[in-house]
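Handout, section B. The chain below has 585 residues.
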Amino acid sequence: MERLKPVDVVIVGGGWTGLLLAKEITSRTSLSVVVLERGGAAARPPENATKMDELDYNIRLRMMQNIADETVTHRHSRKDAAAPVRQYGSFHPGTGVGGAGEHWGGVSNRFLPEQFILASHLRQKFGSEKLPENIAVQDWGVTYDDLEPYYGQAELMMGVCGKAGNIKGKLLEGGNKLEGVRSFEYPNPPHKMSYLMSLFQKASVDLGYQPYPIPTATLSQNYANPDGIKRPACLCCGYCGRYGCMIGAKAQPSTTLLPLLENKKNFTLRPGCWVRRVVHRNGKAEGVSYTDASGKEFLQPADVVVLSSWTLNNTRLLLLSAIGDPYDSTTNKGTLGKNLTHQVSHGVHLYFDKPLNNFMGAGGLGLGLADFEGDLNQKDAPGVMVGGAIRATSGGEGPIGSFGRIPEGESKSNWGSDWKKAAINWYDRAGEIMAEAAHLAYRQNFMDLDPVYTDKFGDPLLRLTLDWTEHEKRQAAFLTKIEVAVGKAMGAKVGGIARGVHEHYDVTYYQSTHVQGGVIMGDSPERSVVNPWLQHWHMPNLWITGGSTFPQNGSGNPTLTMLAATYRAADAFVNRYVKKPGALA
């Protein structure tokens, strides 16, 4: 193994949070920073224009991690045998510089204030004795008010489009009046509405609900952010989710952060570097070991190590490196690997008598309802502790992925001439209303290393133990009723379930890449892995960013919260840790 020249900071993972932290450190200090990314280099907008291939990118998932190199195993409970996930279904982890931030859709909503104090909030509202069995939700150790300035900073950096509903306590028409208090309006106005959105808006208002534009990082107009990065307005080409933007209208790490780093003398980016261990001794991280694309092994010494890879990869790397106390669900002891959460995602199909022009759109283009996102009326939703955000979106539909959606009873089978005729008849007249609900953490849902299966290097795979409980099933049933009612009010024929919560958690169909937990944050080392500034409790020169630090998942998309927490961590690192290295809490 070749030992390289030491650096001040080594960051594992070149996605949103890794590049953001690198940008903050290199622009505010003279520290040398190396980012190691195991995927390839990022494509720029002109290159992405040649990659609008639906079969290659939307069906074959070209921008995702190679599942032949590394996957995960899954089981529903400790008594079950785990099996490897051989094809990506329920989540799509990105790879390469920019990570999932290159192929994301751009939805950029904030979490509700109660999400950050969820354990205290639920106990106060329901009483401990009425909470679900084995619930493991925790307070974050930070509050919405702590993160609010950083939420604004992230929105300005990405140029988020939207309409505020609550600025400094003043409620505003057209925005989400149920959101947390904001300091200022969104940097950019909402996009123009699609035909599907206009139907959704009228139906929602007629039913007494409060629709609002979904905040999105796909620009509604030309924009220059505070860092001087200029990007053009979105063309609504429809090639957004699972693609890199061909003109740069969608905020991506490669277009908003990487240009600020490339010419800095104290920054180095190394793609094709698969980090396999954090090297440590006597409670201090000393660097990382990695294998490059040619198979050669290196040791990168560093004064500070930051893990900024995807949720499952952060957790696995700490487990492989034997840092921290692995969680034991039978005793509820240990912290590393606990509180695995995903997203309670479901929806219904809608069929209309007019074309929707589904080929046009952008990843986050749509309207949402916040009426059922936080606390729910127990008379309407008995036993449902937290709800979800209901949405109608026009994300852009390709002819391959959207073909074949037909109402029930239109064909005797799902193939053949009758099916083809029905599919052509209903093509571009099929839509969807969906919901993403908060997923509570439970003692029985966790991550550890699989004792049987390994990756291409022979290292143990990460094992997910995860299943739905009665609470998630009640969430889905309640929100589906609302979706059906809105769909009918839109004048649509409401068909079958577009996505849903089945009897058991299912790894074969997509439920979002919003997976959280494993390296959770909190106010005590007895209950969490990192402190409120994302610094490891027992190894002060080791920091972790991203969704792995979330104690549980909110109903909203997590990217904006990850960035806000990273901005806050950057302030703590630069203003406190650099001046006096050591534990901040």
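Note. The longest helix spans residues 470-489. Compare this with the example in section A.
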